[in-house]
Amino acid sequence: MIKLVAIDLDGTLLDSKKEISARNKEALAQAKAAGVKIVICTGRPLAAIGIYLDALNLRDNGDYSITFNGGLVQKNDTGEIIEKATMPLENVHDLFELASSLNVPLDILSDGLVLQLPTTKDYESLYSQLNKLLTYESHELAQLTADRIYNKAVIAVDQTYLDEQIQKIPDPFYDRYEIIKTRSNLLEFMPKGITKAYGISLLARDLGIKQEEIMTIGDEENDLPMIEYAGLGVAMENAVPRVKDLADVITDTNDNDGVAQAVEKFVLEPLEGGN
Questions:
Q1: Could you give the percent of the chain with pLDDT greater than 90?
Q2: In terms of Cα–Cα distance, which of 178, 255, 258, 259 is closest to 222?
Q3: For this structure, is 8 an active site residue?
């Protein structure tokens, strides 16, 4: 029996208009009413997903989200962090040097604040276009202090140029960081070992939920760890090929209520059968 459903946002729960369909809302509301934990699992900070939590009525005591690709596990009602993994300042310096050498813009997320660092004069970061709910500030590297929280680093730039520069990232960086494209024009860096699966495993441990009682739904490369980790990993029909290859099942697209279809079949129908 599924007791926790972890769901990605973009390309999964959200349709092409960045909205949650009525059918998706209804299926998740029924699952929550039946006692199933509905957990948004995203690369975004909590401040950037508030409108979706409100739309899904996930602001109650006992509702949780996994943010920063597994870096934080938070209570939705208060924002309290119950599990966290962050970057040390040395990582920020390391990635600043990398971004400078690649001539790409670098943004560092620090809770709900985005620190934009001067790593290139040729390319402007597209991150503010991708996440409009966050606050952006320009900073010099020397201004950053060790006592500050650094959640992750992102490079947001034209897809063609980004793909070219990714090929130039030295292999040792892949040993030190989780490096994943979360959108076609967005590359993210997390501390090694910090993935959506890691965040889900911590929350499941805290809630006493077993791995086989977890269903995850996603579409992009950063969803791979949670798709593989869950007792039931579900890929969207619009998912990248590798996610579809590794998933246990494939549901419909994000524009055709794929999340609702999976929840109805694998969560709600078994619950009805048990009554």
A1: 87
A2: 178
A3: yes
Which of 8, 10, 107, 257 is labelled catalytic?
Answer: 8
Tokens found for residue 210 = 């077993």
Give, as one character, the DSSP assignment of residue 169. Answer: S
Q: Which CATH architecture has domain 4-85+194-273?
A: 3-Layer(aba) Sandwich (3.40)
Other beta carbons less than 10 A from residue 25's beta carbon = 16
Widest Cα–Cα separation across the chain: 63
Per-residue pLDDT tens over the stretch 113-157: 999 999 999 999 999 998 887 899 999 999 999 999 899 999 999
Q: Which single residue is written with the structure tokens 């934990």? A: 37
CATH number of 89-191: 3.30.1240.10
pTM of the model as a whole: 0.84
pLDDT at 77 over 70: yes
Q: Which two tokens stand for residue 175?
A: 């040993």
Q: What is the pLDDT of residue 274?
A: 58
- Both tokens assigned to 250: 């494939």
**Please, are residues 59 and 77 in contact by the beta-carbon 8 Å criterion?**
yes
